[in-house]
Automatic annotation (TrEMBL), chains A, B:
PANTHER family: ALKALINE PHOSPHATASE (PTHR11596). Residues 284-303, 515-537 are annotated as: Disordered. It comes from Cyphellophora attinorum. The keyword Zinc applies. It catalyses: a phosphate monoester + H2O = an alcohol + phosphate. GO terms for molecular function: alkaline phosphatase activity; metal ion binding. This is Alkaline phosphatase. Mg(2+) binds at residues 47, 153, 155, 312. SMART domains: alkPPc. The active site is at residue 102.
């Protein structure tokens, strides 16, 4: 017997979905700390990142040059950026399942309410609940969503849209840009993938089922619209990036970092997007936005409010679903780079606070006899290689497999000629399920599932100076994920329940779940199942 | 290629083994907090306890009655005792392997030095390093070791002995009781299993290879000696327990809690031993020890020093090695009971501080589709059932297997008649490897290994009142396991390096590794391999 929604409900273990404030104290209720003076909040979601993701990334970095030089601080002190910022752990379960998906967990940490898997910013009774981002926007804060998934994927979706089902991608995109959100536009910066959802169906690269042109709508509302890396580069890492703007750099998910880092001209990295977003948010709230002649609708000057931004290292999760150890590693290292950048940013902007927690673990990763070399040898994600394999039209199939696919996966010399022949004879499905297993075996990496697990995840936080000790004292312990936005709410002096009341006055506007069925492109993105490319096992 | 001692050494990633104090700051170096007034320190080791161990135990407790009643605080707030006390995470690797064993990790968190797997209180160069317990003893503190493994198992061993190899059980026992330790007796309370190592070889239940009678030696030095539950009960949970005393309640490891809880007359629980030890330590350092007429050598009165005690929930690890989910669960729940008791104890004794961290994860546990019912149905550990199976002399083998073994494992009705026949025909090894797999499959529990993994583990801590916030601020983050005793050292005002110098003046006394070979009883206890009963797969 598995515990389902019915069972949990019978056991009294589902939240009511009422908009009344929770009666349980959130983290830090016993000691509020010195939150005065905090204007800005940065929330970072490493999607699908478990405790072993960090251990594997640290062990990898520790064992490879140049970390073995004499100038290294030494093994006992070796750490990655996120290590320094661990303050506690988080319980993640959804109202209908011990294993949450990104939508239910996101609804918890964006809005403060438990809900069912698939729910986007609504409670189990189908009513919308306001997010911390929407609340910050209503209070006059600038806001941003910067991700490497599609921008209308579950985690960014819960901050600026409300839907019965996360698969309502078209409706979610329309809400995020303000086309169909009752508050209009609530997000000043949107960056990530999912470009196809913003183009009308007559565009050959569209994945909409209607004629709505969300990029044109955005431009009409004053957004700078970017659809490629060249446009992004014109922002000069935020030095020339007045709000609002939207930059979507891939029709689907953005590239895995392991692939992108070898073709950086194709897309910006998460770190580059984060730097750009923070610099432009800082300028916007500091009144340093340069005048933009001839561009109507840009915010004109300073505000007494700060900003809220959600940054997602989205594809740690996708690589976990694919059991792709090398891709998982690169995404986790990029998350640590972002954590390092944000920590330094906060030291220079001490009116800013950071919190970071995954939505759930993914893949059931453990390491046992870890060897970094097979992961170092890998040049590409399995998704990238599967695309190459699907697209190959040549006649030297065996040579292409050995020289491009196996070599790209870091598996040169691993298989005998007979094994290669047998694998080629077995066909694509067998190939695509064998490659990750080979890498895992060689690297001492174990995956227990292609879905999520129920495990706790780590909570990280940072503030500058003396506030750092206060923040740690506030946030130590094990928290339910619904408690996390309540802390941000207190820090920024916001009222999420007021947002919920305003949303419900404007309701019903929740997107029908079956809208997803009309989506003409089959992008599988439901957590617990497969993400990205359907042929990736 | 796996990373071995040689590779790590070549990479400059092994500590020097020098007795010089580490140059890196330990936790809290940037903010010492208000440690004044702390007299006592309780260190708790949940051996082999990973983050998923806690998630599984919490989900189990949450989903079973009586936690589903109206008086339950509700799902978002549901937690176990250890949850409240999480403050950070710990890196665990040994000097010669990313995956540590209990000896190397114990040497790190007892003595503050990285060493190789198997090392007990010595550095890779073979020289002893002083433990926090030995240091506390030299400074006039009372000390205790309370475990559920054999008392000379690696984790307790590192606090009061020094050996090249953890398998030197006889030499370790002799050091722990003060027979062959250069400082004499350093431990005032020893409780756990391992009785056979304290009896001379002419005793039929001895596992020594010499005539040394450590119980008689202990008695001659003033120890009260207990060898069964009846003697323990006379202590009346510490109300009648002047120091020093030794209580060993099993020749081998103590019973798994899942078994012991059904036969509590056989052995005390870890919680009972902890309560007894803390009450008697408190009396000893508070001067409230009642006079003991006719018993020479008891400490006579109060001291201005407090106490240090290490408590180990030892067999979480053993159940992980055996991939025995039900036994692992019961051990983890007992650990949480001890954490709850200690937290309340500290509230009543605010001059006491607690820290708790595992030595490593064990089993690569993840949960995916967890169902508590198969674990609730289990009545015994697989070790217990394997003993019953081995000892069965009757003729109704099939009936015994179905009614006792399968029923005891909570697997009644799971196998068809044909499957039962096939299993019986396949023999004992197949039976013993099939039962944990069946339970894991039914309960949605995944084990990736029968050994340890490299994953980080959680750090917990507690202090009463305002000191709790200071402690959290000190200890948040990710720490190397070598940093942990340095914090205790500062709190109690001790000098571990002085102890190391004294030990080395008294050296050489490290037990020869080949002493283990003389051990006449084959108790496999090396981490990474099998613990307890050799026939438990």
């Amino acid at each position: 017997m598995r515990y389902t929604a019915t069972l949990l409900a019978a056991a009294g273990l589902i939240c009511s979905g009422s908009a009344a404030p929770p009666t349980r104290p959130g983290p830090g209720a016993g000691g509020p700390g010195s939150k005065n003076g905090m204007r800005n909040f940065i929330y970072i979601v490493p999607d699908g990142y478990g405790q072993h993701s960090q251990t594997m990334a640290r062990d990898y970095a520790m064992l490879l040059p140049p970390n073995t030089t004499a100038s290294n601080p030494g093994p006992a002190g070796f750490h990655l950026a996120a290590d320094l910022l661990v303050v506690g752990t988080v319980r993640t379960w959804a109202s209908d399942n011990l294993i949450t998906d990104s939508a239910a967990s996101g609804t918890a940490f964006a809005c403060g309410y438990k809900s069912y898997n698939d729910a986007v910013g609504i409670t189990p009774d189908g009513l919308p609940v306001g997010s911390i981002l929407e609340t910050a926007h209503l209070a006059g804060f600038k806001t941003g969503l910067v991700v490497t998934s599609t921008i209308n994927h579950a985690t960014p979706a819960v901050y600026a849209s409300h839907a019965e089902n996360r698969d309502s991608y078209e409706a979610i995109a329309a809400q995020e840009i303000g086309y169909s959100h009752p508050f209009g536009s609530t997000v000043d910066i949107l960056m990530g993938g999912g470009r196809c959802y913003f183009k009308p169906q007559n565009d050959s690269t569209s994945c909409r089922s209607d004629d709505v042109d969300l990029f044109s709508f955005a431009a009409s509302k004053g957004f700078t619209v970017m659809q490629d890396r060249a446009a992004f580069d014109e922002l000069n890492l935020g030095e020339n990036a007045p709000l609002p703007y939207i930059g979507l750099f891939n029709d689907d998910q953005m590239m895995y970092e392991i692939d992108r880092s070898r073709e950086p001209e194709k897309e910006p990295s998460l770190l580059e997007m984060v730097e750009t977003a923070l610099v432009s948010l800082d300028k916007a709230v500091s009144g340093r936005t340069p005048p933009q002649s001839g561009k109507p609708g840009k915010p004109a000057g300073p505000t007494d409010k700060g900003y809220f931004i959600m940054i997602e290292a989205s594809r740690i999760d996708h690589a976990g679903h694919a059991n792709d150890a090398a891709a998982h590693l690169y995404e986790t290292l990029m998350y640590n780079e972002v954590m390092d950048f944000v920590r330094n940013w906060i030291d220079e902007h001490p009116d800013t606070m950071m919190m970071s927690a995954a939505d759930h673990e993914c893949g059931g990763l453990t390491t046992n006899g870890f060897d970094p070399e097979p992961l170092q040898a890998a040049q590409h994600s399995l998704e990238y290689l599967a695309d190459l394999w699907s697209e190959y039209n040549g006649t030297n199939i065996r040579g292409f497999f050995v020289d491009t696919i196996l070599a790209g996966a870091g598996l040169s010399g691993v298989l005998s000629d007979e094994e290669i022949d047998a694998l080629l004879a077995a066909g694509e499905d067998e190939i695509l399920s064998t490659l990750p297993d080979l890498t895992a075996e060689l690297a001492g990496v174990n995956w227990s599932t292609g879905g999520h697990t129920a495990g706790d995840i780590n909570l990280h936080a940072y503030a500058a100076g003396d506030r750092w000790r206060e923040l740690k004292a506030d946030l130590a312990g094990n928290h339910d994920n619904t408690e996390l936005p309540r802390y941000i709410e207190k820090v920024l002096g916001l009222d999420m329940d007021a947002t919920t009341r305003k949303l419900r006055e404007a309701a019903p506007f929740v997107a029908p779940a079956d809208a997803a069925k009309k989506t003409k492109r089959n992008v599988k993105t439901r957590d617990g199942h497969e993400h990205g490319h359907a042929h990736m096992h």
